[in-house]
Amino acid sequence: MRMVDVISKKRDGKELTTEEINFFIEGYTKGIIPDYQASALAMAIFFQDMNNRERADLTMAMVNSGETIDLSAIHGIKVDKHSTGGVGDTTTLVLAPLVAALDIPVAKMSGRGLGHTGGTIDKLESVPGFHVEITKSEFIDLVNRDKVAVIGQTGNLTPADKKLYALRDVTGTVESIPLIASSIMSKKIAAGANAIVLDVKTGVGAFMKTDKDAEKLAHAMVKIGNDVGRNTMAIISDMSQPLGFAIGNALEVKEAIDTLKGEGPEDLTELVLTLGSQMVVLAKKAKTLEEARKMLVQVIKNGKALDKFKVFLKNQGGDSSIVDNPEKLPQAKYKIDVPALKGGFVSNIVADEIGIAAMILGAGRATKDDKIDLAVGLMLRKKVGYKVEKGDTLVTIYSNREDVNEVIAKIYENITISDHAQKPVLIHEIITS
Ligand code: URA
Ligand code: CA
Predict the structure, then answer these.
(1) 357 Cα–ligand 2 center, Å
(2) Which atom of ligand 1 is nearest to the CA of 179?
(3) Residue 204: its pLDDT value, please?
(4) Which of 178, 195, 203, 365 could bridge to 231 as Cys pair (CB 3.0-4.6 Å)?
(5) Half-sphere exposure of 418 (CA within 13 A, CB side)
(6) φ/ψ (deg, to 5) at 317
(7) Above 80 in pLDDT, residue 112?
(8) Cβ(180) to ligand 1 under 6 A?
(9) pLDDT single digits (tens) 179-197
């Protein structure tokens, strides 16, 4: 087989065989196929697309390009959740203990954040003592015993995707549905998931900026998952403004605790219940999404979800007393209220720019080696659709630096107050098959 023939075939809009896709992924991973040929094929795929069979084959070829995590020693159906990424997305912190409280195994492999905000591990590390450096066997034992554990990224998973994604980044071929969908799904499958729930974000703060693109991606991923034997569901959710009120690591842990108590922000709570219901159904603990939601609401009400969070933190060295005493979380030295300059309704909070404002304070990393300040971040006091009077606090800045003029300027630039505004719709679509 010659790579040039594979490229020409796709360039002419023809369907690639399983063997041709495997030939490409294996050869590219090993360095036998050069970047220039891989980028030509990526561009051909960008223009000519791939059918469902090709997409499933590409996904599995990337899964098989490296190690895979074997979670078969964990009893039950392992459902993983993936979000395409947003600002102030505290969902995983809430979902993990919440779903585990229903005896569904949550074996989470997570990463650190880059850019706007921290990743799940960064957030959890704001709990004193908590760590994710546990062995594979400790991880499995914890999930079997208490149903939830988080481990840092281990192993050489999907090396083909790492290489191809980096290449796409510099060859104008990131924005291709088959390439994005196979990239995301291959990572979830390699990490051992039996079933997958996807939160595809839409809006200015999201990777997919329009509903139409988000819809295409969500449907593509659900199709791939189901075609390769991993039951998959998805939702499309709003990321035009940040999720919840808190943006920043310790602040989001506090927000997660509030949500597990049933006292969290309305949007975060709704998102968690929607995604959680899909996880419960995929784990086969409920037949319908409605039944699943009732079960989730119940473990919030009876305190089991919060108890599970304590056990989870303690199991991994964390001080679980922060749940009842959140003031033990890292605290910022300065709290600065940013007042509204006029009255009206909040009509826009630009999610990604507000995320960058939090990053400037030190809540996120600009480069991989930056150190994060766990205490700092932003608390939104008004969200889109809220009425404000002149002088009301729009945002509270939590900072360890006294000079926050740059951050204040960014907040004013990216929060709009108008005469009218409506609360945005949070869940745009629910995709179950
Ligand atoms: N995120 C991924 O993991 N892969 C893509 O191709 C795009 C976004
Ligand atoms: Ca939040």
Answers:
(1) 14
(2) 6
(3) 83
(4) 195
(5) 12
(6) 85, 5
(7) no
(8) yes
(9) 999 999 999 999 999 999 9
CA 91/CA 95 separation, integer angstroms: 6
DSSP class of 177: H
Residue in the structure block whose two tokens are 């960014």:
410
Give the SS3 label for residue 327.
helix
Tokens of 292: 């699943």
How many residues are present in the chain?
A: 433
Question: From edge to edge, which strands make up the β-sheet containing 427-431?
Answer: 79-83, 195-202, 231-238, 427-431
183 an active-site residue?
Answer: yes
Long-range contact pairs involving 168-175 (C-beta distance under 8 Å, separation at least 24): 168/39, 168/42, 171/39, 171/42, 171/43, 172/43, 172/46, 173/39, 173/42, 173/43, 173/45, 173/46, 175/46
pLDDT digits (tens, 9 = 90+) for 43-93: 999 999 999 999 999 999 999 999 999 999 999 999 999 999 888 899 999
Spell out the residues 6+ positions from residue 141 whose beta carbon is closer than 8 angstroms to its own: none
Nearest Cα to 134, choosing from 152, 148, 119? 152
Q: Is residue 358 a contact partner of residue 378, using CB atoms and an 8 Å limit?
A: yes
Q: Atom of ligand 1 at shortest distance to CA of 184? A: 3
Q: Which residues, in sequence order, are bridge partners of residue 387?
A: 345
Task: Give the Cα separation of 25 and 168 in Å (integer).
Answer: 14
Dig out the tokens for 329 from the structure.
């979380």
Q: Is 168 a catalytic residue?
A: yes
Ramachandran angles phi, psi of 261, nearest 5°: -85, -5
Burial status of residue 341 (CB atoms within 10 A of its CB: 0-12, 13-18, 19 or more) = exposed
Spatial contact of 308 and 97, defined as CB atoms under 8 Å apart: yes
**242 within 8 A of 229, measured Cβ to Cβ:** no
Cα–Cα distances in angstroms (integers) from residue 42 to residues 3, 5, 30, 262, 405, in the given order: 12, 14, 17, 46, 44
Contact (CB, 8 A) for 380 and 136: no
Establish whether 122 is a catalytic residue: no
